[in-house]
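FAQ: What does a ligand-bound record look like?

Like this one, built around pyridoxal-5'-phosphate:
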Amino acid sequence: MRYISTRGAAPALSFEDVVLTGMAADGGLYVPETIPQLSADELADMAGLSYAEIAFRVMKPFVGGEIEDATFREIVTDAYATFSHDAVVPLKQLDANHFLLEQFHGPTLAFKDVALQLLGRLLDHFLKKRGERAVIMGATSGDTGSAAIEGCRHCDNLDIFILHPHKRVSEVQRRQMTSVLADNVFNIAIEGNFDDAQAMVKASFADQAFLNGTRLVAVNSINWARIMAQIVYYVASAVALGAPGREVSFCVPSANFGNVFAGYMAYRMGLPVKQFIIATNANDILHRTLAANDFSKHELAATLAPSMDIVVSSNFERLLFDAYDRDGKAVAALLERFQQEPTALAEAPLARLREKFASYSVDDDTILEVIREAHHRTGEILDPHTATGYRAAQRVRSDSATPMITLATAHPAKFAEAVVKAGFPGVPLPPHMDDLLEREERYTVLPADLAAVQRFVAEQRR
Ligand SMILES: Cc1ncc(COP(=O)(O)O)c(C=O)c1O
Ligand SMILES: N[C@@H](CCOP(=O)(O)O)C(=O)O
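The answer part, i.e. the structure of the complex:
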């Protein structure tokens, strides 16, 4: 298996190299050169298997024989043993044909754990094999940061630098990151927003001179392994509801687009998916692009679903690469224009996207209304991100005969502000976190200035 860049001008990489890197040298993101296929028989055979076994089977072709089967199976089994639910990501039926896929049973209570428990172990495996050290730089709007720290902190060969937007993540999210006092964990609160943090991480991949030759690795979904691991739960949940004999649809609270892109990859591998719904908060660039072909940046708004407060959506590039028939030059030109001025997609790629994707945007008042309504109807307290998905599924699903799976991307206990504003007393944290609000914190506030951040990383790394 080889991996190529969405901008068409960087060298192709092996699986091991793609895991141990971030962005491609041409500024693009890596995708598999060919998309492995899952036959109907292979899908049918997965019914009733454990999540770890499905994960092994779905991901094996992407690894391309670069890790021995027995070792890879061990890594996968170990990663998913950290989840508090046997099903890892259980399905919960809400009504006749609407299901929640609960993605918050991992150590940090958000869907990011599914990929980052695996990625941490893959990095450990490859770095030990090579006898190398590496520096991680990641940007977070709140959930990736803690999941990355939790997934990678036991790897002695890694120093982990996580940039979060100062005062723009929830208290629980911040404390999940900043109360990890390990010697190899560094939290940086950036005086800016998530887009600023992500831009600095990407700029650091583009010019790594500040690290004097030490390897820089991504934990954001720019790292292909993140997407790969997220494909699994689309397959597992669809098979649980009758695939390949029955089509399903997915509604995905979206921002940086890694989650729904993984679903699209599952579809490209052969999973029968009728529709993907992209749900956004008030930061609605994905919805504006799909619905009105308005691919332009608006100012980033702080919302009640802070993890989705993102304007420049990284993985949309991977979808564009497919929509533009894998023409890297066209993707590079479009994205360069996008950085400079309001732009639009060409007609044919947009039409292709609209065949499979619908979208819907949900503002803060509606998030609160949905939390109340969903509780009244189903007894569930949704987190504010999941609430955007719940409403989008109600409004734009193509039909009610096809099972709709809405991804419940985080636990409501992480987002007390929205839950309390919606009129509930709050949701308790699980026992392993019940003293979180009393734990000591450590983090450094820095301006949104690339040189300052790089200087900090260069000085602090071990
Ligand atoms: C809780 C939660 N829901 C949804 C999203 C959106 O996922 P993605 O960035 O993969 O589109 C994120 C992060 O971005 C998140 O943390
Ligand atoms: N919502 C994310 C933003 C970063 O997304 P990623 O999937 O690219 O890591 C977060 O919680 O940090």
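Follow-up question: can I read anything off the structure? Yes, for example: Residues 110, 141, 143, 221, 253-259, 307-308, 385, 409-410 surround pyridoxal-5'-phosphate (ligand 1) (CB under 6 Å).
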